[in-house]
Write a structure and sequence with these properties.
The chain is an alpha/beta fold. The protein is built from 17 helices and 14 strands. The radius of gyration is 25 Å and the shape is globular. About 15% of the residues have low confidence.
């Protein structure tokens, strides 16, 4: 359901609101949300996620009239034809808008009608009748067609529409990723041939065979989480990026959009070769075009450096979501309240959940925090033993109850035990579930609802690129659908695993943050306990523009 639809001027004056509100944007409950996304310097249509992760918003501009149209909705919902509705609202409002008029009460009836029509189109699409109803590409032309009175072009169903993501994934994966050899191994895992053969932290086989002999505490040095990575300014003048834009270098004149288009197209293609999903690459280019339109370049400014700066800004904005989480600070806050901080690791089989859980434990231990592991993968044989090996090596307690138990209950008992023993953090390992396996997803949803962890961390493999984006979206959707409580808990943060194996195909990080609004909190970059890093947005930007 649409929670809010606002029409306001670029100056922030609300002209019409679905909930009937008027007046200044400051008074609106979605003020922060809108301000953080829109009033800065965005000028292309787009989508975003609220700070608490619960709401999503989509916006459209009418640049000619200086109007902004924003729809706010519960993030977990699949709002079909929302772009369609926004475009129709934009077109109809443009007809009645007058700069001197500030009250548009009568627009409510028009909106109701537009909403009904959009709903009908969505229903039609859902029932399969709209197989031929083409999802038009982005027109990238906010607000210019309305005055002609023509029908607004429907675009796709929105950034959170699963079908969009499915298509997006298929397209990009096909183009960029040779599918890994998907033959499952003996544990049902899908191995990747590019995976390094060094299995330093992979104890799963030993665990299954009962050959657990390692009782020695490991000392591998400082976790990379706490080491600052030096990143330069990235590719300079002679790089690919400059060469594409150099040809349209201008001196002392206004940037001409038509001259820029081929270069933007080349940029989009280039981003896609680095695993950036097509839709996102397209949005980035649109937003760059919009921010450059009409800009005058000084005689010594090259268009390449102007575009690069705009691109960097847009990428950094995506990679640095407003919803940031400081785990160490939050652990200490929980400690003061005499309870452990709980992190639940979720993700599909074989992505590196338990390995990276152990790396997180190692990092926490280096910060003088006490950690308990909770073996809540009571489904896959060998999982408990594998975690036990990590616990032994790290010399930390593990709470385990074997297999075929109710994982929600095991997690609850583990947290109780950690509270009793004054452990600072509980790291909960869960069964790797395929997001389309309903009983397993229901169990995960129950575990999360009953135990209200501080952090639900999604582990996604950087290597499989946009497959991980698809998994993430579907996990969120299932957690929302299967939740027994009204305010469903969704994924709070991302751990991007196997980043050391992706070379320059770093786009998955961008896509995952873009579609979920959840920050990448850890990056797994190898098979030692120290191989855990923070996401370095600047280095990703450099790699993408290389
Ligand atoms: P789980 O089934 O999700 O718990 O996955 P595991 O933790 O058992 O990991 C699966 C495989 O991925 C193991 O061989 C790990 O050593 C490997 N792995 C995990 N994280 C990384 C990483 O950051 N880089 C690399 N190269 N391999 C990793």
């Amino acid at each position: 359901m649409l929670e809010e639809l606002l029409i306001f001027t670029r100056g922030g004056l609300i002209l019409w609101a679905l909930s009937g509100g008027g007046g200044s944007l400051k008074a609106s409950p979605v003020d922060a949300l809108i301000r953080s996304y829109l009033l800065e310097d965005r000028s292309a249509d787009g989508a975003g996620v609220s700070q608490d992760g619960k709401h999503a918003l989509k916006w459209a501009f009418h640049n000619g009239l200086g109007l902004v149209f924003v729809a706010v909705y519960r993030r977990v919902l699949r709002l079909l034809r929302l772009d369609d509705l926004l475009a129709a609202v934009r077109a109809e409002f443009a007809r009645v808008y007058h700069p001197k008029r500030t009250s548009y009460d009568g627009f409510s009836d028009v909106f109701r009608q537009l909403h009904l029509e959009a709903q009908a189109r969505a229903d039609e699409m859902n029932s399969g009748n709209a197989g031929g109803s083409k999802q038009a590409g982005s027109d990238g032309d906010s607000g210019k067609k309305e005055n002609s009175g023509g029908d607004p072009k429907p675009k796709d169903g929105g950034a959170f529409d699963l079908s969009t993501l499915q298509n997006l994934r298929n397209r990009v994966i096909r183009r960029n990723n040779k599918k890994p050899n998907n033959k499952p191994d003996i544990k049902g895992r899908h191995k990747n041939p590019n995976e390094p053969s060094d299995k330093k932290l992979d104890f799963s086989d030993a665990a299954e065979r009962g050959k657990v002999t390692d009782h020695v505490a490991i000392k591998e040095g400082q976790s990379k989480m706490d080491k600052d990575e030096q990143v330069g300014d990235g590719p300079q003048a002679k790089g690919w990026f400059s060469s594409v834009f150099q040809s349209i270098a201008v001196g002392n004149k206004v940037i001409d959009m038509s001259g820029l288009q081929p270069a933007l197209k080349a940029l989009k293609d280039r981003l896609m070769t680095k695993n950036v999903a097509e839709e996102i690459a397209e949005k980035l280019c649109e937003s760059i075009a919009a921010s450059l339109e009409g800009k005058k370049l000084g005689s010594f400014t090259s268009i390449a450096s102007t575009v690069r700066a705009a691109m960097e800004k847009a990428l950094l904005r995506i990679l640095t979501p407003s919803r940031s989480i400081d785990i160490l600070r939050d652990v200490h806050a929980a400690k003061e309240r005499e309870r452990p901080y709980v992190i639940v690791f979720v993700g599909v089989n074989g992505v590196g959940k338990s390995t990276n859980l152990a790396k997180v434990a190692y990092w926490l231990l280096q910060h003088d925090l006490s950690v308990t592991l909770a073996a809540c993968d009571t489904f896959r044989s060998g999982a408990v033993e594998q975690l036990r090996i990590h616990a032994r090596r790290l010399q930390i307690p593990i709470f385990e109850k074997g297999y075929e138990r109710d994982t929600a209950v095991v997690a609850k008992q583990a947290i109780q035990e950690a509270t009793r023993t004054k452990s600072d953090v509980v790291l909960v390992d869960t069964a790797g579930r395929m997001q389309d396996n309903e009983p397993l997803m229901r169990a995960l949803s129950k575990l999360i609802n009953i135990n209200s962890p501080d952090l639900v961390l999604f582990v996604g493999e950087a290597l499989v690129g946009n497959d991980a984006v698809d998994q993430l979206t579907q996990f969120n959707q299932k957690l929302a659908d299967l939740s027994s409580v009204p305010a469903a808990r969704l994924i709070d943060g991302i751990l991007l695993s196997k980043f050391d194996t992706v070379d320059d195909k770093v786009g998955a990080a961008l896509s995952m943050v873009y579609v979920s609004g959840a920050p990448v909190m850890f990056v797994g970059c190898g098979q030692s306990y120290t191989d855990l890093k923070k996401l370095n947005a600047k280095s990703i930007v450099n790699t993408l523009l290389k």
